[in-house]
């Protein structure tokens, strides 16, 4: 027991600070990726609903591929090609190569993967908005943008929110996959701690506990937000 | 693209490993899922509570962490036990494959257990009462009415969960099991082709997903429903 306290504690021999720092990076990656995924999801959903034929095909292809291919594979593929591609772009523009590892690439990669799921959630919740309401707003003379901001968005929010809450939880879990390509997030730090102390079980259980805490807290918070957005519903 | 022929043995071996992983964990996991669901709807508190806790913990933590706990954590404990080291199961316990199956079974049992529980709760009460009125024992009501009804209802969701399971098998490559992705990674390190092996494997995963969806679509059409 005392061994546990030294290992997980905050002293010089302990890895507590390292784990908590990792947890912070995990939260950073997850929040960033959630925002990126949301933006991509909204754009893809709009492309699927209102886009031209070619845009629809592209959007559908993107969703299918991202939902059928293992996340780990996509992360490997996008992580290397992403940093490679950005460097090629920078070179073409005449800038020196930079090492864009870590958090920003992780955010973009996870955002791209989650955007596919987000787009399906958003598409189905836009479809759940009664069509008569949209027609009424158009009759009032609202422009399409205004209809979207004032009518569609607030009315679809409760429908979308429960799906997005699930997406957030699975995003936090998927962010652990980033440890495979080596960004010092929670699981990566736990792996390092486990490797150098050989107490594998202790550190992986600690990492699991921290992930579980993130999910429990966000579940509770999201339930409140959902209630707030649902308040106009019967 | 010459590497495809050069390393076809490795890729086929990886493909078969992925198939083995998914079929073992699908079958065992589904049986466990029914067990978890039955425990969760049970009225006995000491059955329901652990099952609920199990589901919550497994669904609340990343699968990769669970795999590490099982493989590195349990693996290192087993390695320190002379009884296990000298027994006949040690060759199996040294290989990552069975740890992966175990982790996948746990995960599938939790996720599908949740779905099956939803199905069990959703069975119309009238049907259960009718079965009881005919004189069926509670055991028989569960076996002949409630469980089959629930399983029919969850079949469409099960297709999605099986696709998730297929995608999860790719994590086996992180604990040195040469599955499809593991094979692709080995090819990459030997040929210095960065993207092509990954893209090839991605296409195979998409095809496998389509096959799973087809399979469940067929199964769904065989359900006796009155339309």
Automatic annotation (TrEMBL), chain A:
Is-annotated flag, keyword Cell membrane? Answer: yes
Signal peptide positions (record): none
Q: Which InterPro entries match?
A: AA_ABC_transptr_permease_3TM, ABC_transp_permease_HisMQ, MetI-like, MetI-like_sf
Give the record's GO biological process terms.
amino acid transport
Out of the domains of life, which is the source?
Bacteria
Q: Belongs to which family?
A: Belongs to the binding-protein-dependent transport system permease family. HisMQ subfamily.
Protein name, UniProt field: Histidine transport system permease protein HisQ
Q: Which organism is it from?
A: Marinomonas spartinae
> Which lineage is the organism of this entry classified under, starting from the top rank?
Bacteria, Pseudomonadati, Pseudomonadota, Gammaproteobacteria, Oceanospirillales
Automatic annotation (TrEMBL), chain B:
Top-level taxonomic group? Bacteria
Q: What does the UniProt entry say about where the protein is found?
A: Cell inner membrane; Cell membrane
InterPro entries named in the record: AA_ABC_transptr_permease_3TM (IPR010065), ArtM/GltK/GlnP/TcyL/YhdX-like (IPR043429), MetI-like (IPR000515), MetI-like_sf (IPR035906)
| GO molecular function ontology, one term from the record | transmembrane transporter activity
Whether Cell membrane counts among this entry's keywords is yes
Which UniProt keywords are present, listed alphabetically? Amino-acid transport, Cell membrane, Membrane, Transmembrane, Transmembrane helix, Transport
What CDD domains does this protein map onto?
Answer: TM_PBP2 (cd06261)
Limits of the ABC transmembrane type-1 domain: 15-216
TM annotation in the entry: 20-42, 63-84, 96-116, 150-178, 198-217
What are the GO BP annotations of this UniProt entry?
amino acid transport
Topology relative to the membrane, per the entry? Multi-pass membrane protein
**UniProt cross-references to Gene3D superfamilies, sorted A to Z:** MetI-like
Query: GO terms for CC?
Result: ATP-binding cassette (ABC) transporter complex
Q: Which Pfam family would be a valid example here?
A: BPD_transp_1
Claim: Cell membrane is one of the keywords in the record: yes
Signal peptide bounds: none
Major subcellular site: membrane
Q: What does this protein do?
A: Part of the binding-protein-dependent transport system for glutamine; probably responsible for the translocation of the substrate across the membrane.
PANTHER family noted in UniProt: GLUTAMINE TRANSPORT SYSTEM PERMEASE PROTEIN GLNP, MEMBRANE COMPONENT OF AMINO ACID ABC TRANSPORTER
The similarity annotation says: Belongs to the binding-protein-dependent transport system permease family. HisMQ subfamily.
Name the record gives this protein: Octopine transport system permease protein OccM
What species is given as this protein's source? Answer: Marinomonas spartinae
